Amino acid sequence: MVTWNNLDTLASFQDLKKADRVNLVEAMAGENGAKRVKNYTIPMAEGFAFNYAAKQVDDNVLEALVKLAKEAQLSEKFKAVYNGEVVNTGENRRVLHHMTRGQLGQAVEADGVDKRKFYVEQQERIADFANKVHAGEITNAAGEKFTTVVQIGIGGSDLGPRAIYLALENWAKKNNTFKMEAKFISNVDPDDAAAVLNSIDVAHSLFVLVSKSGTTLETLTNESFVKDALKNAGLDASKHMIAVTSETSPLAKSDDYLAAFFMDDYIGGRYSSSSAVGGAVLSLAFGPEVFAQFLEGAHEEDKLSMNEDVLQNPEMLDALIGVYERNVLGYPATAVLPYSQALNRFPAHLQQLDMESNGKCVNRFGERVSYPTGPIIFGEPGTNGQHSFYQLLHQGTDIVPLQFVGFKNSQIGTDVVIQGSTSQQKLCANVAAQIVAFACGKSDENRNKNFEGGRPSSIIIGDQVTPKTIGALLAHFENKVMFQGFLWNINSFDQEGVQLGKVLAKRVLAHETDGALKEFSDLLNI
Ligand SMILES: O=P(O)(O)OC[C@H]1O[C@](O)(CO)[C@@H](O)[C@@H]1O
Predict the structure, then answer these.
(1) Which value does ipTM take for this structure?
(2) Are residues 278 and 478 in contact, defined by beta-carbon separation less than 8 angstroms?
(3) DSSP element (H, E) containing 50
């Protein structure tokens, strides 16, 4: 049995607060710093390593974090998740996204079906459909092959699949598994749909309407936008559109689609990349085998999250250090900084994953918590970020913990040697330099040129962005966020905070406004 307690009621948390603070500038200097880099590292799946040498921890703090993990029952709570207990108490739902990529615990039967079987069945149906599209067995009305796939969806029905598509596009081209170009329409801004429609050949495009609820205003509006465009081009929309939704949604039984693939209520939107939500577009774009490799990578990382040895569990330790930074050291934000152009949109996905999951001020029982929860998440790929917001990170008044991700090899392989080094070497040199610059700083008599240092970071280092590694990386962050939610005793799997704005927007559109809402509606000419 697990017990859900607030972080500040745990004795081990009070002990953690008493642990001596680590002076990172001193800890990372000289031979001691070198030793930390060698020792403070945990192997991850698919050749990754999580290195936390430049975090503000030492053996003493780590010991306190291990005790906190035990008292907060992090392993037991993860077990409750993958064994199908109703841990999303706000919505009275199980949380089964791990099961879309493998079986970690016991079989879970819900709604009269074995859930693992259900997810695999959907994957097989998608694989079959994608193979038929690629083989020209499913075509447009003129019998011609579809060349482009366009996903229509928003939030979790957009960000994860889009980030993964972009991460693998060049890899797939290089490895001859690129089947169809993918585009994405998400924003209700008409310029989003119009620009995508202007950039494609609609007659050879297959649209994937993705909405778990089947009720999201932006997605349904964009569906109509696209259907209009298809009609105007003299095409039958139902021959160009498939749906990915939950079996209980209004879209599930519609005849408007060529095919429908399902997830269910136990897969949260932001955790849905490994379900049919990511499966459809990624299998169409790169082939089902590539999607299967992505799932394999995610499953391998999930298995590591089960490790009860905290110091060998990368997700658990990452989560614990993050809570230490937030609740003991008082840092307000975390920057995610992938040194890889392929991970261009990964920070945007992590923003939803983390902030929609852990941006809560009440605990699992609806009581106000008296400690900070989820940090502000932001990020950009390096080295672009260096020439943008790193000034504040190095010399600003706030300390922002950093989460670097780096790869030894590029994806495309085309490179150039300038002044004795390749571009890839320059990229990697920058990330190494940044870690040390942030941690150690540099004294200068000129205050303006002085770097105080003491700015903590971790780095996940891998070989290359591939389907397996992107799967492992995604699972790492999903599980980190989950463990942090356990520590804060909040429900990371609902998102009531997005409702109020939706309700008020509906009132504006129905002209049922008064006060400030009416004034703003008038100012915006609605
Ligand atoms: O897939 P749906 O139901 O259209 O929802 C889209 C997104 O809207 C939200 O419910 C709220 O923003 C997200 O959690 C979700 O990912």
Answers:
(1) 0.98
(2) no
(3) strand 49-51
CA R_g for the chain: 24
Q: Whole-angstrom Cα distance, residue 341 to residue 325?
A: 28
Partnered with residue 246 across adjacent β-strands are: 263
Does 502 participate in catalysis according to the annotation? yes
Residues 480, 302 contacting (CB under 8 angstroms): no
* Distance, CA of 526 to CA of 448 (rounded, Å): 49
Domain-embedded: residue 208? yes
| The domain boundary residue, chosen from 245, 262, 292 | 292
C-beta separation of 147 from 133 below 8 A: no
**Boundaries of domain holding 510:** 495-526
- Please report the atom of ligand 1 found closest to the CA of residue 153: 4
521 occurs within a structural domain: yes
pLDDT digits (tens, 9 = 90+) for 408-432: 999 999 999 999 999 999 999 999 9
Distant-in-sequence, close-in-space partners of 237: CB < 8 Å, separation ≥ 6: 226, 227, 230, 231, 256
Q: Is residue 153 part of a domain?
A: yes
Amino acid letter, residue 33? G
What is residue 209's three-state secondary structure? strand
Q: Supply 478's token pair.
A: 């999903």
Q: Which member of 502, 506, 512, 519 is catalytic? A: 502
- φ and ψ of 340, to 5 deg: -165, 120
Asked whether residue 354 carries a pLDDT value surpassing 90, the answer given is yes
Tens of pLDDT along 169-188?
A: 999 999 999 999 999 999 99
H-helix or E-strand spanning residue 479: helix 467-488
Token pair 């900070």 is at which residue?
372
Does residue 270 line the site of ligand 1, with CB under 6 A?
yes
In a domain, 323, yes or no: no
Number of separate domains in the chain: 2
Helix axes 288-305, 467-488, angle to 10 degrees: 40
Cα(144)–Cα(281) distance, integer angstroms:
19
Nearest atom in ligand 1 to the alpha carbon of residue 356 is 14
Ligand 1 mean position, distance from CA 350 (Å): 15
Q: Catalytic annotation on 98? A: no
Q: Do the Cβ atoms of 166 and 340 come closer than 8 Å?
A: no
The pLDDT tens digits of the residues spanning 84-137 come to: 999 999 999 999 999 999 999 999 999 899 999 999 999 999 999 999 999 999
333-339/41-43 β-pairing: unpaired
CATH no. for residue 215? Answer: 3.40.50.10490
pLDDT of 253 > 90? The answer is no
Q: Single out the residue in 253, 269, 292 at which a domain terminates.
A: 292
Cα 326 to averaged position of ligand 1 atoms, centre (Å): 27
